[in-house]
Write a structure and sequence with these properties.
Blueprint lengths: L4 E9 L2 E8 L7 E11 L1 H9 L1 E2 L2 E2 L4 E2 L3 E9 L11 E4 L2 E2 L5 H4 L10 E2 L12 E5 L3 E3 L6 H19 L7 E5 L3 H12 L4 E5 L3 H9 L4 E3 L6 H8 L5 E6 L4 H10 E9 L12 H6 L3 E4 L7 H8 L10 E6 L3 H10 L6 E5 L3
Parallel strand pairs: 13-14, 13-16, 14-15, 16-17, 17-18, 19-20
Antiparallel strand pairs: 1-2, 1-6, 3-7, 3-11, 3-20, 4-5, 7-8, 8-12, 9-10
This protein binds zinc ion (2 copies).
Length: 350
């Protein structure tokens, strides 16, 4: 495999992605080489493309973005036993140390030594091939598509939100913000057996998609009072859990007064300003659980099992498909057409 070349979409600097020939990576003993079939454009990729940083992570040299992928194993290191050449796999893109307190307790998403794709300075996988430690590969059953495999990553955020809020079938859920994460959180709620799911967004296209993906009702927060409308829709009972994925400061503040007493709020969307006004007395008085969420842990095996059964339709979030050569176009679409694009897929080998 020495000195073979492949195409990769390299972001030289913000707003500048170039297709370059680079070395095909060679797997270490515990790694596999994966031929990338499809890979999503994530909000974080777009953010790095536009601003060159997310919080403390700063793009300081050219980087390959992209971390939501599935493909085929085409090479394995000498110590790999869990996958074989020819396996179709989904890639969990954060390789953790496996040794620290967080890893050992199962909360490996908090591992301080995680090497996460497309988080500077770590390269992602907008490329023909990528290597990754093989224990972060999950075999896809024949009935799952590569697209479903790639969507396991954003779906995992929703699944982790359900797990954080200890959601059960008796919960009534509100999802605020219907981007890819919010829409997939609706599907995650279905995995957890939730049947009453309410959602809010201002964009008609997203509202329609949410309906197609099985929400009970969609509310436009600029036209209706969300709490009042939910009270009407639930016969006065209200929602027990809110998953906030918009990052809108107003939506975050409203979540505190929208869930019923004893409710749980999972904060997923990051607001532009770190500090926002929040009614703390309401949180105390209603004994609310306000939960943060960082990526996900232990979600892939269950998600794959859930997707082999009927009832879920995660591929509905895919609105556009591009080749690797069109990566900049794909990211520009995601950046500028937020009202009509949800999840954009790139196909590096077609
Ligand atoms: Zn992502
Ligand atoms: Zn660790």
């Amino acid at each position: 495999m020495d000195s073979k070349l492949m195409d990769a979409a390299v972001m030289n600097k913000p707003l500048d992605i170039e297709i370059k020939k680079i070395q095909v990576p060679v797997p270490q003993a515990d790694e596999a080489l994966v031929k990338v079939y499809c890979i999503g454009v994530c909000g974080s990729d777009v953010h790095y493309y536009e601003h060159g940083r997310i919080g403390r992570y700063v793009v300081e040299k050219p980087i390959i973005l992209g971390h939501e992928l599935a493909g085929e194993v085409v090479g394995i290191g000498s110590a790999v036993t869990n996958v074989q050449v020819g396996d179709r796999v989904a890639v969990e893109p954060g390789v953790t140390c496996g040794r620290c307190e967080y890893c050992k307790s199962g909360r490996y998403n908090l591992c301080p030594d995680v090497v996460f794709m497309a988080t500077p300075p770590v390269d992602g996988a907008w490329a023909e091939y990528v290597t990754i430690r093989s224990d972060f590969l999950f075999k896809l059953p024949d009935e799952l598509s590569f697209e479903q495999g790639a969507l396991l990553e954003p779906l995992s955020v929703g699944l982790h939100a359900m797990s954080r809020a200890k959601v059960t079938p008796s919960d009534r859920l509100l999802v605020t913000g219907l981007g890819p994460i919010g829409l997939l959180a609706i599907q995650a709620a279905k995995v957890y057996g939730v049947s009453e799911i309410y959602a809010t967004d201002v964009v008609p296209f997203r509202q329609e998609l949410a309906k197609e993906m099985g929400v009970t009702a969609v509310i436009d927060p600029t036209k209706e009072d969300v709490k009042q409308r939910i009270a009407e829709l639930t016969g006065g009972k209200g929602v027990t859990v809110a998953v906030e994925s918009s990052g809108n400061a107003r939506a975050i503040a409203d979540a505190v007064r929208t869930v019923k007493r004893g409710g749980r709020i999972v904060l997923v969307g990051m607001p532009a300003a770190s500090e926002i006004p929040l009614d703390v007395n309401a949180i105390i008085d209603a004994e609310l659980d306000v939960l943060g969420l960082f990526r996900y842990a232990n979600t892939y095996p269950g998600a794959i099992q859930a997707l082999t059964r009927p009832g879920l339709d995660i591929e509905k979030v895919i609105t556009h498909k591009y080749s690797l050569e069109q990566t900049q176009e794909a990211v520009e679409m995601a950046r500028t057409q937020k009202d009509t694009s949800i999840k954009i897929m790139i196909y590096p080998n077609q």
